[in-house]
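Forum > Structural Biology > Help requests

Title: Can anyone predict the 3D structure of Phage integrase?

Hi all, first post here. I have the sequence for Phage integrase but no way to get a structure on my laptop. I'd be grateful if someone could post the structure tokens.
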Amino acid sequence: VRASSKVSKSPSKVWRLKYRLHGKENRFSIGAYPDIGLKEARDIARGARRDVANHTAPLKAKTSKIEAQILNEVRTFEYVAKQWLAFKSAELVTKSIGV
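Reply #1:
Sure, ran it for you. Structure tokens for Phage integrase below:
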């Protein structure tokens, strides 16, 4: 597992992590250089190395975390109440909506 920065012909600089999982070499893009500094890139790489040690692809782990966060945000009472109100507003009397 090796972390590095890649500078290509284009002016963009990207942090990447090279790793081997299930006998196959892969790369995980950590992010662009000015947006993500060295310390943060190292922290993200450490977490990705933990994922590889647990036999999980870092991108799959990252996607799962984002999906879980979105799911938690969607399950708030306020969100569900607004969705219900939008769905039922045509049937309700203006007085019951509170407008």
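The chain has one domain: 2-97. The chain has a mean pLDDT of 84.
Shout if anything looks off.
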